[in-house]
Amino acid sequence: MSDFPRPQLSAAASGTSDRHPLTYLIDNLELRSRLSDADRRRILTLPYDLHARPPASYLLRDGEEPMRCGVLVSGFAYRVKLTGEGERQILAILVPGDAVDFQSLFLDRADHSVQMLTHGEVAFVPRTELQTLARTNEAIGQAIIIKVMAEASIFREWTLNVGRRDARRALAHLLCEIAVRLGHIGLAKPDRFQLPLTQADLADALGLTPVHVNRTLMSLEADGLINRRIRMISFPDWQRLCEFAEFEPDYLHLGRQERSVTFEGAEFLTRL
Amino acid sequence: MSDFPRPQLSAAASGTSDRHPLTYLIDNLELRSRLSDADRRRILTLPYDLHARPPASYLLRDGEEPMRCGVLVSGFAYRVKLTGEGERQILAILVPGDAVDFQSLFLDRADHSVQMLTHGEVAFVPRTELQTLARTNEAIGQAIIIKVMAEASIFREWTLNVGRRDARRALAHLLCEIAVRLGHIGLAKPDRFQLPLTQADLADALGLTPVHVNRTLMSLEADGLINRRIRMISFPDWQRLCEFAEFEPDYLHLGRQERSVTFEGAEFLTRL
DNA sequence: CGTACGTTTGATCTTTCTCAATAATGGTGG
DNA sequence: CCACCATTATTGAGAAAGATCAAACGTACG
Fold first, then answer.
1. Among A86, A187, A195, B117, who pairs with B76 as Cys (CB 3.0-4.6 Å)?
2. pLDDT tens-digit series, residues B1-32
3. Taking the model in full, what pTM does it have?
């Protein structure tokens, strides 16, 4: 909370290896929940189709009835909504291991779209299989709920970023978030990472204009808060950047949510 | 979708009657889920404390470990986050029947605060009781998940509103949302309602300045999109307002989420 | 009837947008 | 490996939406 966690390398591999695709989902759930060996094996029995997807392709369309749930295996994607005028607002970034449709697993239709940001691979699991799994396996069901709740928390911070931080602070905050999330899956070095978004994407994420994002990036660089070489962002002073951005990663709810383990009938927790 | 639902009066009462407080929660869940008589009775067995709360009092504090879950029985509340500079961003409005802590029912600590907007009453239920209920009763558990997901959908639309709509459109959209949600619980007439927010609150909800909200309200009124008498907002032409605001209430996910009923082992849904 | 809070108004300033052009970059086919 | 094309990034000048500051006005309520 007070000392800012650097983006850290973890064991989760990065390349488009030949690991079972759903191990990425397992790793993702285990960022916040504890699963048993049996739970992990159960997830690996889910049927899936693995597909390569090009940039900008849709993984989910606004208004559609979701029939399957995609799990991002490699590459990046984003959640997006459009205004009537066709202006985009990017709502979230998905990284490898993230599921596309947990957000609407029990809703009749999608209220936003998900599109690929880069080239990547997606494992599609039938929605009914996941629903059944979520309801028959308590640990997995809870892990999914925790994931949904953590994502909702990220939406809230995103709204604060868009609504109440100026361009410099908001952009710095977004870079911090992406750096930490990539670090947790081994896709960022402690002091640098490859930004998967163009400046136009950043603009749509922050409710700004590409031109202004460009100027803001240059302004952050001029102040020594970041360095850029092409699309590689590096942090000369991570802590200073976090302080400037007001970045406090609690809202990511990373780390196991241990307190949520209820001891049936036990009241002692309410006395803590 | 094509014809805009007017805010509608429902059977859910409004006054601070002597109904069992948790019937408000039941009505709230039944906006989107089907519950059996047994489920309803089960909810009514939850222990609770009913408290009157003054405006601005906290129902949940950012960073706190939630020990209990409040259910708003009367009055209004809002979810809020602060920047490091102390600027507020209101993230959501809670109306009678809404639960305060579903958003963090399985998370270790709250990532935002909830405060009363007006005077009101809140029924506090021990968090462990709710967790247990959510896990032991499938229908209620699913109803809670659906509620969490629907709220997340509202967060996303909120972000679009703040990030990509100009002040007039965003304000009109917010008024539409509040009108429809109040209508569904019988707190709005078809063409008018009592706005529970001050102009400063509206500003914090939209990422604007109170001065600008004031001017924007006057501008909407000058265009005949709304009328105001004190805090009473009325709609001379609801459909025109909806079109102007790009308000399409699908994102509220009101109406029973029937498709989410899985027939165990049945694959036929994937063929729809 | 006075105090606190909310609303309205005016003048001025800043951030961010718009439009338009130019320069890099990256990938592709030859 | 090079030439070419499409994207992406950068720059400049001018315009606009929204912010800021300060004050006056209403209204509600103890």
1. B117
2. 334 554 443 333 344 457 999 999 999 999 99
3. 0.91
